[in-house]
Amino acid sequence: MQLTFETVAALVALPFLAAAATPLVFRVLGERTSYYAAAVAAVCFALVAGQYGNHGVASMAWVPAYDVSLAFYVDGLALLVGLLASGVGVLVFVYSGGYMHGEPAQSKYYATLLAFMGSMLGVAFAADLVALFVFWELTSVCSFVLIGHYTGQASSRYAARKSMLITVGGGLFMLAGFLLLADATGTFSLAALLEHPAETHAALTEAGLLVPVVGLVGIGAAAKSAQWPLHIWLPNAMEAPTPVSAFLHSATMVKAGVYLLGRVRPFLVGTEWELAFVALGLVTMTVAAMLAVGATDIKELLAYSTASHLGLIVAGFGFASHYGAETGAFHILNHAAFKAALFLVAGIIAHEAGTRKIDELGGLARDLPITAAVTAVAALGMAGVPPFNGFYSKEFLFEAAYDAAHTMGGVWWLAPAIAVFGSVFTFLYSIRFLMLFFGEKPDGLGDVHRPPLAMLVPPVLLALLAGAIGLGGITGALDVPLAPVENFVGEVVTAVSGHGGEEAFHYYVPTHVTPALAMSGLTIALGLAAYTVYDRLHALVNALTTGPARANWWYDGAVDGVTALSEAVTPRIANGLLRTYATWALGGAAVLTLAAYLSAGVSLPAFTGIALDTPLVVVSVVAAGAAAAVLLADSHVAGVLTLSILGFMVAIVYIVASAPDLALTQLVVETLTLVIFLMVLDKLPSWYGGTERFRSIRDAGLSVLVGATVTVTVLLATAGGRPDGGLQPAELGRRALEEGGGHNVVNVILVDLRGFDTLGEISVVSMAALSVVTLIAMRERVGGEA
Amino acid sequence: MSTVVFRTTTRVVVPIILLVSVALFLQGHNAPGGGFIGGVLTVTAFALLYMAYGMAFVETEVFDRSDEPAEDHIYGGIVVYYRLLFACGLALALLSGLVPMLLDPLGFDLPFMSQNYLVYHDVPLYGEMEIASALAFDLGVYCVVVGGLLTVLSVVGSE
User: Fold this and answer.
1) Do B40 and A665 touch (CB under 8 A)?
2) In which element (H, E) is residue A345 found?
């Protein structure tokens, strides 16, 4: 299919439209909404698959005057993530039909899941850093809603908040990185950055921004992809319904982080990149695998395992070598296949056996034979046992690690050592998960039912995919490779290596002994040996992870500390007295404005004297007199009346300066405020009595500060003359008459020439009115509390 | 506050204010005035009525809604109409901007919010009369200002 803007825009927009229509559809279809959602996902899948083989940018001018366009970028990596999002989406929606039977808030569930799918497709195809950021944060918001699906449970709410804080916070770091990137290269367009990766890299190095950009983008990716020590939100995220865990927290959303690394890899890769991400990835892979061994709940085990495998992908993308790109690209596909299958299996177990505790499960193969077969394929792939699919991508990691150690030597020899060490734990927990299906059935475990077909078909399909990839390795060794997979992964490798040339990709069962094969063999041997003492390792991991050794200890401490701090500060700033709010708001605005002027180093225009004409002097004297009278007024009514004299004098200044429209506006507004003031004052005591000296001095100081800020601002704003591109008054008048047909230039500007601004302003007026209504309605709802 | 003098003055002044506000709104295209100024002046007239006679009077006598008690000024009573007014105003302003885009199929390539005007000659009484498409947008502004400010005024005033 031709790469057209319409197709890509349609496949990104379709899930959002479908999500908007979900409440209506749910009213008609009820629980069968799952099939509607699956159909939407299937259409998206077909559209994405239709783009296979395409490369390049599809864009449409949006605001041509400002050179803003809506653009999508299509290449192998984007297609991989797009296919995962829509393909796993189809399966998860079908599975949800069985799993969510009788659950609450299904309309919200399907709508959010569809919106998530759209956001994920947006992340995959965004050709612009800003668009990427927006879709990225949208996935976090959807994840927040889905994790907190059971709104009644405190643990759900805690988990949702935690994932929101960490992933959205990480997203802000990423935004800062994007801004630096755009500052150094002068463009927000990903397509432009990817077109000349070497030039982009050079520009960043020259600006001295390479390390900050790598660091900031890395933090964003690490938060999203649950890298140590930001992995802590992922195990909590298992509070979500299991299909959500399979979809968001194993196959797609957490892949956004590694997708980002693959996306920016072509122009950021270098020594700093390699050091940072190899270390981060390998540490995460090992720590998370050890934590998975310490898990007591099957979903917790899978969550830590997901973090561990994401670490493997990060480490893969970290290695600058060709093997590194192949590791990351291939393992994204493999991991999505086996992990989504395992999550769906975990959902079946929880649903049919009624428990998720590892200790309470065993011998499930007799009741769930098909599920057991699925688990065998998926878990052995996860363990990295040949010839299952995870084995090949792990081989690439070992090769990349060995290659790095061999060429760079020294401390780099740690890389293969840690890789093997972490993989031993991966092997351990994978086998432990598989053994849930074998051995003796514990006495406490009651009847285990067969799952409905809707819950069985999706994991079977995923396992078939994983198995097919695995078999492709055997046939590959016999020179009959699994061409579609090899070509597809080759496209992804091309996208993440950024050399410009096509990269060929082949994988097969090794036919002779290589260092990588030796490392795999060592892993499996050590794993088998360690499995005999699994229970002691399990206890050891749990004994080691207490107190400050847990990342959660730091997170909870920080959140509690910040909460206590804001509870301590709030009563001082927001104590319910209007006076206090005004003091802080006005003082804060004045200080910030003045500080901005100081840091920008502006200088006031030279004083050139003022032309004194009689009317202006008279008006000024009256105004000054009124101002003085306000201070001396001995009642509210007198104060307001004298204050309005000041306002009317301002109107006269406008008349003198021949601005009748402004004068009219000022007069009308002044009248209205006066009337409203009088209306309110009618209900208030006429005078509060004397004031404290301290408060008077403070208020006087604040008034002087605000007055000075306004004066300086007016002087600065009028000093520079008209901003560039502004029209001269005569030109404005001519255009108003010719184009707008009006003699009142001000009004024509308001409703015609700059009508867009006015539209914004009246929207603000409407929003203000709505907020007042809402605020007062809320106050009445909580029982008249002020 | 609601003395006889004040009430009587209000009675005389309010129709004049309303008339002037409409005049200001209509003449805005060529002379000082326009939707915003006209709107604020209209609100002033209502504020005077509220002060002199109270909200209940405006509700029952001016708008002839005596059958409904004005207990709840947020969800019920006249405020509902004020809210409708500013919502419609905003919609009107937006739609008036969209109209030029809808003309696209007719061969006009007009961006969002293009305006135009027609001048009619030999209109009885007026002589020359100009109709500007911007008037629709300005009417939207007028409605938003009147509706928005009156909503705030009534809701806060009823507290």
Assistant:
1) yes
2) helix A322-353
